[in-house]
Design brief:
Low-confidence stretches: 162-170
Radius of gyration: 21 Å
Distance between the termini: 25 Å
Oligomer: single chain
CATH architecture of the largest domain: 3-Layer(aba) Sandwich
Strand content: 5-15%
Structural class: alpha/beta
Number of helices: 10
Number of domains: 2
Order of helices and strands: EHEEEEEHEHEHEHHHHHH
Helix content: 40-55%
Shape: elongated
């Protein structure tokens, strides 16, 4: 699973990659040229970038390729100098790379391809690069949407599986079962990573069914829904306005309550 997104902070693809990382709570960084500038001027201090000694971008590009597990090139149509340099550097250093051309793939298809590559390789640190905004005015928006969708797809495939033990290493047992929906939600928020909380908060209502595996299994098994946690089942019935809910129905109530909470506290915003 991707743990870090890096780039040199150039406009277009690279800046969209950093903004997406910040938005989704993923670690970010990368090398950039001395002066920390792009074609729009001085880069904001919120980007965790390290300056090279040289003014040109070639050194930063080579370092980003070298320090990542793979390079993801995103473009839309005609090739650019940046794309050619990134591919050449990846080949020279014998690093993995994927070039996704949005003129050849629909956005969702491109995101699915990117997600499969990122999560199966696996790529823990990915260098994302491509055209500048001056070369493609829409590439920033397309890149951000592609990356968000790619990470969402990987999130669904993984089933959003939190650590199966609570913080501090204490296994959830009968005496520790949550007694109410609010308690269950509070515990789930404590064991989910910031990225997973952000991604779940960005789901649409009809996408909650994707969580039946992974986090859904965790809720049913660890919170005693199969083993007689009557207090929690009663709370789920009250919150969900259900009459004697089954474990699957009670689980759905908890996940819905978690989603509603995260929609309020972890709503995703574009950071520029």
């Amino acid at each position: 699973m991707v743990r870090k997104i890096i780039s040199s902070g150039q406009t277009g693809v690279e800046l969209a990659a950093l903004d997406t990382a910040i938005k989704l709570g993923i670690d970010h960084g990368g090398w950039t040229s001395r002066g920390k500038r792009n074609e729009e001027g001085k880069l904001q201090g919120l980007y965790n970038l390290t300056e090279t000694r040289s003014l040109g971008l070639q050194e930063a590009l080579d370092k980003n390729v070298a320090e990542s597990d793979g390079t993801l090139v995103i473009s839309r149509g005609a090739s650019t100098i940046t794309i050619k340099q990134a591919v050449q550097s990846a080949l020279k250093q014998e690093r993995q790379f994927l070039h996704v051309d949005l003129s050849q793939y629909a956005l969702f298809e491109a995101a699915s391809l990117s997600s499969a590559w990122l999560f199966q390789a696996p790529i823990k640190t990915v260098f994302v690069t491509g055209p500048l905004s001056s070369e493609d005015k829409l590439i920033y928006q397309h890149t951000q949407k592609l990356l968000e969708t790619a990470f969402y797809l990987g999130f669904v495939k993984s089933g959003l599986q939190p650590q199966l033990i609570g913080r501090g290493g204490e296994e959830f047992t009968r005496p520790n079962w949550p007694q109410t929906v609010d308690q269950a939600v509070a515990h789930l928020k404590s064991v989910l990573s910031l990225k997973d909380r952000s991604l779940m908060g960005n789901l649409q209502p009809d996408e909650l069914s994707h969580l039946r595996s992974g986090i859904g299994d965790y809720v049913k098994q660890k919170y005693g829904l199969y083993e007689g946690n009557e207090a929690l089942m009663k709370s789920c019935a009250e919150v969900g306005r259900l009459n004697q809910p089954l474990p699957d129905e009670a689980c759905a109530v908890i996940l819905r309550a978690l989603w509603e909470d995260l929609r309020r506290t972890h709503k995703l915003r574009v950071v520029k």
